[in-house]
Automatic annotation (TrEMBL):
InterPro entries: Cbl-indep_Met_Synth_N (IPR013215), Cobalamin-indep_Met_synthase (IPR006276), Met_Synth_C/arc (IPR002629), UROD/MetE-like_sf (IPR038071). It holds the Pfam family Meth_synt_2. It comes from the Bacteria. This is 5-methyltetrahydropteroyltriglutamate--homocysteine methyltransferase. Its cofactor is Zn(2+). Residues 438-760 form the Cobalamin-independent methionine synthase MetE C-terminal/archaeal domain. L-methionine binds at I443, G444, S445, E496, D611. The active site is at H706 (proton donor). The lineage of its organism: Bacteria, Bacillati, Actinomycetota, Actinomycetes, Mycobacteriales. Belongs to the vitamin-B12 independent methionine synthase family.
Amino acid sequence: MTAPSASPTPSASPTFRATVLGSPRIGAHRELKRATESYWAGRIDRAQLESVAAGLRSATRAALAGAGLDSVPVNTFSYYDQVLDTAVLLGALPPRVDAVPDDLDRYFAAARGTADILPLEMTKWFDTNYHYLVPEIGPGTTFHLNPGKVLSELAEARAQGIPARPVVIGPLTFLALSKAVDGGPAPIERLDELLPLYRDLLEQLAGAGARWVQLDEPVLVTDTLDDPAALAEGVYQYLGETSGRPALFVATYFGALDGALPALARTPVEAIGVDLVAGGDRAPAAIPELADKLLVAGVVDGRNIWATDLESALGTLARLSGSAGAVAVSTSCSTLHVPYSLDQETELDAALRSWLAFGAEKVAEVATLATALRDGRESVADAIAASAAAVASRKSDPRLHNSAVRARLQTVLASGIARGPADRRRARQDARLHLPALATTTIGSYPQTVEIRKARAAMKSGEITPAEYERRMKAEIAEVIRLQETIGLDVLVHGEPERNDMVQYFAEQLDGFFATQNGWVQSYGTRCVRPPILYGDVVRPKPMTVDWATYAQSLTTKPVKGMLTGPVTILAWSFVRDDQPLADTANQIALAIRDETVDLESAGITIIQVDEPALRELLPLRSHQKEAYLRWAVGAFRLSTSGVGDSTQIHTHLCYSEFGEIIGAIADLDADVTSIEAARSHMEVLDDLNAIGFSTSVGPGVYDIHSPRVPGTEEIAESLRAAVRAIPAGRLWVNPDCGLKTRSTDEVTAALQNLVQAAELVRAEQ
Ligand code: GLN
Ligand code: ZN
């Protein structure tokens, strides 16, 4: 690689061959989670927490360097979230946390709130299931540089003799992910204020011995910014002109750069990182401006758990070598999104294990590919042969291809996935269910009590028999039914005591899924999830929920809703096979859910809810891909819900997002009743639904279950009155925002009593 002659780059231009864009930080055994939660609970002090954190950082760096990476990312550690870290770096914490004297506690106050400080809002990081904290930029924000964290992590690495590359979120991405508050302009308008700070940071990092700095700009693969190419060119031209700076590596991930790639390549930055997995592997080869850049080729999927096909990755790298100045091998994004290592999975069969690569295995793949580039493929012949064998084994494994299920899917699809007309369904359901206007219900789960958790643990450890477990769960169900009858709700639920997680519960019962033992991935802060691995064709060997539902229904004359998780949500919260289109996989899951709805109906269940809280999450980052996604996502939902008769009422439930962009798709789901998160957004969603002519029933959430606050009767009644102004009472349902499993029984009882009273009050006013 040679630096462009006009740019004031460091005299001897450095280079690297093998790296990852970032790595997990919670600890292979979730050590950071435990330590942080102990610190919050006051069981350990700050010094003890910091020592756990320093140990994890040091072990991570040593592992990355030891595996053969010649450039190791640092500042990828975080006590909570990397976007929040960037807000601290740039002096952009909200003024309301200033009163907290200790800087670590101030940081946690911004992340989680305190008794009297509201936390920052949390939202999904691009199209992943990781959540970041949304910085607030307002008139009170006075940017200033606070580089302590990145400088000290760099110093730690240098003391360890590691070739460290500080990683910082770039200015465009930081501002695009922030939100304006207190009447301030869109954060991106304040770009010019931030750029000198980044310049200063680059100079300080160079002074502290950094030869490379990675600036992350994933926002450039989305359609968020008005003119991403021009902005990217302007920002990186400016930063490129910083005197005495380290070499600059602009990393992008989660998609293709399109026009922003040649724009970035025209600037003086030394390296550009491209995601060749999510973004396709062809485009960079056609950009002449890359001829003097180091192209950091993200050929190893950082987000999914499949082993890389080394042969195919070498082909991609060979093609790129002809066009870029030099090529380094990398993961497509940070491996934050995959578990630490396969080492801890002892129950995998050999075939399945050979198909997989978690974080540590991906690092090894990067190193292998880089060695092949430098020393020729013969130098890694064994690894290539093993990879080829794994690819062949995965292709031919009978579990991946169940022709009976595939044929049945085609037959069902060919026979159509539409239900009867909505008004006919409505009439038949009314005649059967006799529900009042403003019918009251809940979203599915009731508090997961200590007894429930204990029973699950005891069952897992073999301390109690499955029969005893079932007895205890049934006792919980009976209790929850009794509670709902006492409160006077119209449509009951069984409370989901038997479900540890709304996706894992189904994954454990479907063929084609594998549950990991220790495949934890950070979801936000100290919260981790363990997504199942969907590796083969999905088959439902037997009914999954019918016994629980019918037991609950046997205890009451009121209707009990059957509760299922929808195909898109199961897909979104699993690691999914990458050998066929997502749409095909979604349809296979949908067929299994459809079979479940039909079985529930035959068992006498009259109302079935199919939850799709993740419908918005998988929405593609590029506008032109959105329509195709929504088409197949809606299709999968309809496939899963159209097997039942017109008199069976289908509910769906949506939450966790802004619905504006997908409001049309929500209508297309064609559910009879849609419950939707609304308590925080004050019913605005109803106007949006009206605007598109939404004509089925809707239950806007009137109880914010994310807060321990119990809403009063009059407060709920006011929300309902607002709702009735937008939608006729006959089409309105009354329900909380989401499931109740994280709340206490006392809170839930009080809130639901108020909810039922408020419904009666407003019903009487109609
Ligand atoms: N039925 C699920 C529950 O109540 C829905 C959860 C969700 O929307 N995330 O827990
Ligand atoms: Zn929900």
